[in-house]
Design goal:
The chain is α/β, with parallel strands linked by helices. The protein is built from 17 helices and 21 strands. β6, α12 and β7 form a beta-alpha-beta unit. It starts with a helix and ends with a strand.
């Protein structure tokens, strides 16, 4: 078009230089944005890897102080990620160079376009791709558990934050690119902050508790409180404390400040250590190996002439550098004030970090060490130069433990009377023989060590299993299996009991462990809003543990009632739902549901059982919430609304002299609600004598029927599954089937009707409220006392 034509049409062509300048400007802007994006991703990837390393090694809690641990993790994981990113970039550039070399050979046939792929690869910042792939590779390593990279165990919060940190880096890289409009810049900055604040806020959120069931205050108020003293109150003794140990330990309380010295012990023939480089790290950290394990303990003891019974408690698995043994000081001081020497045993050197023994092969050593402590106390008790000369009653001993320590205590009680491999390699038969009367197992596992291939059975020994319904570590009631295996064969005065504390967790029985059942970082995924406070949980623990020890070591039998009717201890306990089981050596089972054959068959010869008005009446193996079995069968009874459900146990004709039934005995049974029934049950219990006299008593007069107790341990199952952290809590059900034991004195029936003859009982009846549909588990029907 000519100039005259342009003027005539009103169009003026832009100068060529102006068009070129605009294109160059756009190209530079696009290049700057690409560069900013690449740099942002790279810096975000580096920061994400450093944060992941710091968080992961903070969780390990191995080196001290913890800031050194964080720095070490940041350097190691950051360096690994940087190396991976560099390798990706180098491999990409080499691939691009190779493509160009191949392309040049093909140029003559394919033309200049043959160089395009190689030129593109060489121009792309492949380091950027590497910084995206490096964190993903770390996550993949954590998921696949590659053996030679097994030391990488990313903390779940790190996995949650890594993608958002990389994305934030990309946004910030673009935001601070030259030429970006200020409004867009601060919008991108705000978005970068928001996408990280949201997951961080969710991690710091404690969770929810709107699903919790509460105790029935009206039913509790109908029961009279116990008239004997609160076991959680201090006793009358002044308390002293000391520590004992090898004198060479790096911890001053067991080294230079130890009041009493003990000999180290050699455990190598039973468990040589963790193996390989782990042993090197172990020796450097502790200053000894498994050939010279220390016998270290913290003791609290009453001031007085004695002799006093003794209680040993040992912690379970926890980060080794975060010492667990001081965590039971509250219990030691309390029990000593009530006349019981209490020792918190140090076995931190058997605990895990990445030296964790997941197979539990060190378990027998844990139990054996408890007996080595008792040997030291035997020596001090016999030594006139010892402050404990003649002050220790070694015929009145209870051993206890928390978590893995709880199972260790069970094995210590077993080894005390009979050794089993591998302890036979480090002990002599008959060298122990202490008067161990009972075991206290707090949130304990079961069967990590099986002597002779069989789970341990306690015989003629008292046993207490204490468990939190919101245990977020050992999330199923494994100790119920041990409870079921406790046997009474002689004329023992022993008893067994369990105490379920609904809102208790795993760790708060120990002041060091606290509410972080999966470590301080992984526990950010746990639902902790529903928990009792640490002080409340330890208060409940003191009530049950002290009641057990008073009954076992001081022969205060009235304290057994705490496990028979926990509702009557309500003024001693924090507000919560408590479920207990109890059985002693006097129990004579009439219908325990363990008898094979037809449903009508019961333990009493010629006796029968009849279920009327039920839609379901069957013996079932009670499961735990993780799908395992409790080791116990119960009667599963279900009924429809408007029915009159009645379960009757008919006893044989004639008298029950061989059962020693009289006015001083008790009717015993266990009862539980259907899983999702959070309202409890309305039940009446009746006895019928030989004259046909029937006495019906409401169950609420002798104890409450606890409702079903749901527990949601994770804040979000989908998020935990996404982070590969749901293995912490893999439950088949949110409910645990826990039955409550009941004891109704025959005297109460005789008092209700003076014509009733408790020596001539012919039938036991259970009337269930059929106005609405329901389901119950009934078990362990018999006589006791």
């Amino acid at each position: 078009m000519s100039a005259v034509q342009s003027i005539a049409t009103g169009t003026v062509p832009a100068p060529a230089a102006s068009i070129s300048s605009e294109l160059i400007s756009r190209s530079r802007t696009a290049s700057n944005l690409r560069h900013g994006l690449s740099v942002g991703i790279e810096r975000g990837g580096l920061f994400a890897s450093v944060v992941a390393g710091a968080l992961t090694f903070l969780q390990v809690e191995f080196f001290h102080p913890l800031i050194l641990n964080c720095l070490l993790g940041a350097v190691l994981v950051g360096s690994l990620a940087a190396g991976l990113a560099a390798l990706v970039g180098l491999a990409g550039k080499l691939a691009g160079l190779l493509l160009i070399l191949v392309g040049r050979a093909l140029v003559r046939k394919l033309g200049p376009r043959a160089l395009a792929p190689g030129t593109f690869v060489r121009r792309v910042r492949l380091e950027t791709v590497g910084w995206v792939l490096a964190p993903l590779f770390l996550i993949a390593v954590d998921r696949t558990k590659i053996p030679f990279l097994s030391f990488i165990r990313l903390a779940p919060p790190a996995e949650l934050l890594m993608p958002t940190l990389i994305l934030a880096g990309a946004l910030l890289g673009v935001a601070f690119t030259r030429g970006v409009h200020p409004a867009l810049r601060w919008s991108l900055v705000s978005l970068a902050l928001a996408i990280n604040v949201a997951p961080a806020g969710w991690l710091l959120w404690p969770g929810y508790d709107d699903y919790l069931v509460r105790p029935d205050a009206t039913a509790l108020a109908a029961l009279p409180a116990f008239e004997f003293g609160d076991p959680a109150l201090p006793g009358s003794y002044a308390v002293k404390t000391l520590t004992y140990g090898s004198g060479q330990d790096r911890r001053p309380e067991y080294g230079r400040d130890a009041a009493l010295l003990t000999q180290t012990v050699d455990a190598r023939a039973a468990f040589a250590g963790f193996g390989g480089i782990n042993d090197t790290i172990f020796n450097l950290f502790w200053g000894f190996d498994f050939g010279s394990l220390p016998v270290n303990g913290r003791a609290w003891y009453p001031e007085g002439a004695g002799p006093f019974p003794i209680f040993l408690i040992v912690h379970g698995n926890h980060s080794a550098g975060d010492f667990s043994d001081p965590g039971y000081a509250y219990l030691g001081e309390h029990l000593a004030s009530r006349g019981i020497i209490t020792v918190s045993v140090d076995e931190n050197f058997l605990n895990g970090f990445f030296l964790y023994d997941g197979d539990g092969k060190e378990m027998p050593v844990r139990g054996w060490l408890l007996l080595k402590h008792l040997q030291a106390w035997r020596g001090w008790n016999a030594d006139p130069a010892s402050p404990f000369y003649g002050k220790v009653d070694l015929d009145r001993v209870v051993v206890g433990g928390h978590s893995r320590g709880g199972e260790a205590a069970v094995h210590a009680a077993g080894f005390n009377n009979r050794l089993a491999p591998p302890v036979t390699e480090i002990a002599e038969e008959g060298e122990f023989g202490f008067g161990i009367r009972g075991v206290v197992a707090i949130a304990a596992p079961d069967g990590q060590y099986k002597p002779y291939g069989m789970k341990r059975t306690l015989i003629d020994m008292s046993y207490l299993y204490l468990y939190g319904g919101h245990d977020q570590d050992l999330y199923w009631m494994a100790g119920l299996q041990q409870y079921q295996r406790v046997k009474f064969e002689g004329s023992s005065d022993a008893f067994k009991a369990t105490a379920f504390i609904y809102r208790a967790n795993h760790g708060q029985f120990n002041t060091v462990w606290g509410d972080a059942d999966q470590g301080r970082l992984a526990s950010l995924l746990l639902n902790r809003a529903s928990l009792l406070s640490g002080a409340e949980q330890r208060q409940a623990g003191k009530v049950f543990i002290t009641a057990f020890l008073e009954a076992t070591l001081h022969d205060r039998d009235e304290y057994r009632q705490v496990f028979q009717t926990p509702a009557r201890a309500r003024t001693w306990l924090p507000e919560d739902v408590y479920v207990t089981q109890y059985e002693d050596a006097t129990f004579r089972g009439v219908n325990t549901n363990d008898r094979l054959g037809k449903l009508a068959q019961i333990e009493a010869p010629e006796g029968t059982a009849v279920a009327e008005g039920f839609t379901t009446a069957a013996r079932v193996a009670l499961p735990l919430c993780n799908g395992e079995k409790q080791g116990n069968h119960a009667l599963d009874l279900a009924w429809a609304a408007g029915s009159k459900p009645l379960y009757t146990v008919n006893l044989p004709t004639g008298n029950l002299a061989d059962w020693s039934v009289n006015r001083e005995k008790w009717l015993a049974f266990s009862l539980g609600t259907e899983l999702t029934d959070t309202t409890g049950l309305d039940v009446d219990v009746a006895l019928v004598d030989g004259n046909g006299t029937t006495v019906v008593l409401p169950l609420w007069g002798f104890g409450t029927v606890p409702p079903a107790t749901p527990a949601y341990l994770l804040k979000s199952q989908p998020v935990s599954s996404l982070l590969n952290a749901d293995y912490y809590v893999k439950r088949a059900s949110s409910y645990e089937r826990v039955l409550q034991s009941y004891r109704i004195p025959f005297a109460a029936f005789a008092q209700a009707d003076t014509s009733f003859d408790p020596t001539q009982i012919r039938a036991i009846r259970f009337y269930f409220d059929g106005t609405r549909a329901g389901q119950a588990y009934l078990d362990e029907i018999g006589f006791e006392g």
